[in-house]
User: Which sequence fits this backbone?
């Protein structure tokens, strides 16, 4: 079983549109959305019969006011400014349990923190049923990396059990905690880049991360007509870094229109030929990575 | 990042009230909706008031790419992580027991510290029965303090690639704003979890940049929830507006009692200009008017 992860550094470059399209092309595969902050892949894949499971990202402290002697030790020691007037601000509490350990009268308890849910559903693309794994972290919660790991392990279990050859995953933006977690065990990262000064800057930082983690990658330049000069610079940069380019895709109103209506872009006949060759290149690269 | 002297050229004076001191966060659940466009254009519009622009998207800081500036100072930022003195350690395992993040592993003859898992809470150092743990600094990024050629200053946080925890650096970016500027504008990271929460916290107002697409609407609902939890008043700015009355955005806005403060029309020319890193106010001067109006409404609401 192999896993492809779609990344971009900068948000809004077209990760989800491409991920959904690749899933449509792939045939037998499992789909994953690791953007647990703002999960958008299900909007295009429309999985049904999703069952949700609670996820706890950690613990949080609760002070029992009746037992508390108001010594203030916990407030002095808390590095997250989460304790004020002998009560815990749940948003600021990181669940380190420092207060729990130091309280002289054991007035602090640690409670499981419901942080979100993860789901396993089934989408129907073309004639195939595709298992879809995704999650929703509650706004304001932390530990997105842990939730990503949870989604990943559920997807991999299913792939192992039912012999799925491929997992295609939509990644989160940025290069921080959830991205680092999403990189674990993948075979190829597909970088969807937009040719702007910020888009270029962001894939360079993303590539630094991929090199650091020893992850192979392939580049797709989306909206390549936005700035042909930057697009050319990107291609040169990729060649220098030894990153193959799977293709350049011009801005397409048909693609934007499909997404606006919540449809997988390549189900539109105008979009299909734009992305199919890109997918072919990615498959070739994946074969080489044996 | 010098050049673009034309930035100084003002198309018309912006009439914005003086003397209000406030911090405005520019955020969105979805990435790529135009946070940095709006934040940097607001910094240009408010240039006469020497605004402070904070680039709090420390994973991918982009404001400096589209706003001409001169870096005055670069300050390293670190966070404390445990360092075990093996001479006094008895390998009792207490620290590993205490650590809620599995950042310490105690073996018969050594202690392993996983810096990337450590949350810098300090519990292990304080509670070690042998006082064998001291804290040492773990480098997580830099703060770049720059002067903006258009007027004002900019503080950029740049996270070390591979470091998973951005909130401690975002906190430092916010602290570097000082408390003398009339306007502090925070360009936030996307999402609705810890980095975004850290960035918008303590703001007087949060501008949520929205695009009217299924993705944009889905993520808007989540960012509204984040603002609600933090009790930060917020308003919407619709970007890539194709005309029309934005029924879908309006419905969410009304349901939540949130105002729509402005609309930035879609323009291929604007997209091209921004992709090059040029000044959007030159290609589309009306953005200046739109955002001036947005700021006025924010001021009315904050006061």
Assistant:
């Amino acid at each position: 079983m192999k896993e492809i992860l779609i990344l971009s550094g900068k948000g809004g470059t077209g990760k989800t549109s491409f991920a959904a399209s690749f899933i449509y092309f792939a045939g037998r595969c499992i789909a994953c959305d690791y953007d647990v902050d703002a999960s958008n892949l299900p909007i295009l894949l429309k999985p049904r019969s999703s069952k949700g499971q609670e996820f706890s990202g950690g613990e949080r402290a609760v002070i029992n006011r009746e037992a508390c002697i108001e010594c203030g030790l916990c407030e002095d020691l808390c590095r997250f400014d989460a304790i004020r007037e002998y009560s815990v601000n749940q948003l600021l509490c990181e669940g380190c349990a420092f207060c729990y350990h130091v309280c002289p009268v054991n007035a602090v308890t640690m409670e499981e923190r419901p942080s979100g849910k993860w789901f396993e559903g089934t989408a129907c693309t073309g004639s195939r049923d595709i298992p879809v794994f995704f999650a929703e972290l509650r706004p304001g919660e932390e530990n997105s990396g842990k939730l990503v790991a949870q989604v990943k392990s559920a997807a991999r279990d299913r792939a192992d059990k039912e012999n799925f050859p491929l997992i295609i995953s939509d990644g989160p933006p940025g290069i921080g905690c959830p991205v680092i977690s999403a990189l674990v065990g993948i075979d190829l990262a597909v970088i969807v880049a937009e040719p702007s000064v910020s888009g270029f800057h962001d894939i360079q930082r993303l590539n630094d991360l991929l090199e650091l983690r020893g992850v192979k990658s392939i580049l797709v330049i989306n909206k390549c007509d936005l700035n042909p000069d930057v697009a050319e610079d990107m291609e040169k940069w990729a060649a220098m870094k030894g990153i193959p380019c799977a293709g350049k895709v011009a801005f397409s109103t048909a693609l934007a229109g499909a997404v606006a209506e919540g449809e997988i872009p390549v189900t539109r006949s105008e979009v299909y030929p734009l992305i199919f060759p890109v997918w072919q290149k990615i498959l070739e690269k994946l074969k080489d990575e044996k | 990042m010098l050049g673009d002297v034309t930035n100084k050229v003002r198309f018309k004076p912006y009439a914005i009230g003086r003397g209000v001191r406030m911090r405005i966060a520019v955020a969105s659940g979805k990435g790529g909706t135009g946070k940095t466009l709006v934040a940097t254009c607001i910094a240009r519009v408010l240039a006469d008031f020497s605004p402070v622009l904070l680039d709090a998207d420390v994973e991918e800081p982009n404001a400096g790419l589209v706003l001409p500036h001169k870096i005055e100072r670069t300050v390293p930022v670190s966070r404390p992580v445990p360092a075990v003195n093996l001479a006094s350690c008895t390998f009792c395992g207490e620290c590993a027991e205490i650590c809620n993040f599995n950042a310490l592993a105690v073996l018969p003859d050594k202690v392993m510290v996983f810096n990337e898992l450590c949350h810098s809470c300090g519990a292990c150092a304080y509670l070690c029965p042998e006082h064998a743990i001291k804290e040492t600094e773990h480098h997580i990024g830099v703060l770049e303090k720059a002067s903006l050629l258009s007027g004002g200053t900019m503080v950029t946080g740049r996270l070390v690639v591979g470091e998973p925890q951005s909130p401690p650096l975002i906190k430092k970016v916010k602290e570097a704003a000082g408390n003398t500027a009339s306007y502090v504008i925070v360009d936030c990271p996307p999402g609705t979890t810890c980095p975004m929460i850290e960035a918008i916290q303590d703001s007087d107002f949060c501008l949520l940049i929205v695009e009217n697409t299924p993705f944009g609407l889905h993520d808007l609902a989540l960012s509204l929830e984040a603002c609600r939890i933090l009790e930060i008043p917020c308003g919407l700015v619709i970007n890539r507006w194709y005309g029309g009355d934005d029924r879908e955005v309006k419905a969410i806005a009304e349901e939540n009692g949130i105002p729509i403060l402005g609309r930035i029309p879609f323009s291929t020319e604007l997209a091209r200009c921004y992709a090059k890193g040029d000044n959007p106010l030159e290609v589309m001067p009306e953005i200046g008017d739109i955002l001036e109006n947005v700021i006025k409404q924010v001021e009315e609401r904050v006061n």
